[in-house]
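Protocol step 4 of 6: structure prediction from sequence.
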Amino acid sequence: MDNPKTLSLVIPCYNEERTLIPCVKRVLAIATTDLRLELVIVDDCSTDKSLALARELAKHHPEITVLHHDKNRGKGAALRTGFIHASGDFVGIQDADMEYDPLEYHILLQPILADKADVVFGSRYLKSDTRRVLYFWHTWMNQTLTLISNMFTNLDVTDMETGYKLFRREIIQGIDLKENRFGFEPEVTAKVSQTRCRVYECAISYLPRTPEEGKKINWKDGVHALYCILHYGAPSAPLAMQLAIYFIIGSICAVVNVAVFSMLFHAGLRVEMATPASFAFAASLNYVLCVAILFHHKARWNTFGELIAYLCTVLFMGLVDYGLTIGFIATGTGVIFSKVIATSVGFVGNFLLRRFFVFPQPRVVRI
């Protein structure tokens, strides 16, 4: 090939003195005349000899760059550091624990080299081959998290948690990543889906370690992964999923609305006062939950128009809630039941106005 491509492999490393050297040797062996390598080893403040071994490797192999964190920050942070310094045409991830076979990057590269894909996932669940049998609950957790992730991203990958992900460099360097630990996997999957780039999967082999052999991920990381799926996936999830999430948020706020109204009414406050007071309390809670979870988390009200839009929505739905409550009471309907009807109408109206008026999702141009 007249113009060989360069594959940058980021190798996050934390206390891998036993496997680092054989892993790097296996990675170096995949270079060909058509494929150059750049290895970026990021030592995440190892307490063993990993950093010294990495630096020794770099002395003998100019294609190796070694970076170091002054304190342990986690796999996601190590990957971010590596991605920033990667300069190849394509960027992949290679754990230093030898669970994955570097030779299979030649397989992952094929859809990108054929200009069919921008991102390729290596799936441990597509390969029909012999495998090491380990723990049922670990596999079940991976597959369940993949299913939930797919519901939010509208992708149909079979292995969201895979450690083998390959990107065109401009794709991964254009994604703003936040997670420091193993939350990287659901976060990057959600944000890849939001770019509307072309995603492929390839079957790969997998030789897993046990915790006794140095496996670092645990059930707490699974719980955090579920949070990351919701946190990063909900704002751009398909409308049906957003409606389901808002149903939960809206149901909580509706119960709070009715409960506060009932408490104020039975405490002697007039209906004309209890209605707007309970609505204002529930609307505030609804806003906090919507911003934190669903539409526009961590909003900073940096546009005057957004603030005006939200206030208009609250005012309009407040008038609807007040008018329906008073109107149904005037027809002889029970006070609490009238409030329940008004709150139900408000649930639908609030979702539609927040989704399409206050927090509209920007149009995403397919890469």
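Step 5 (inspection) to follow. The two ends are 26 Å apart (CA to CA).
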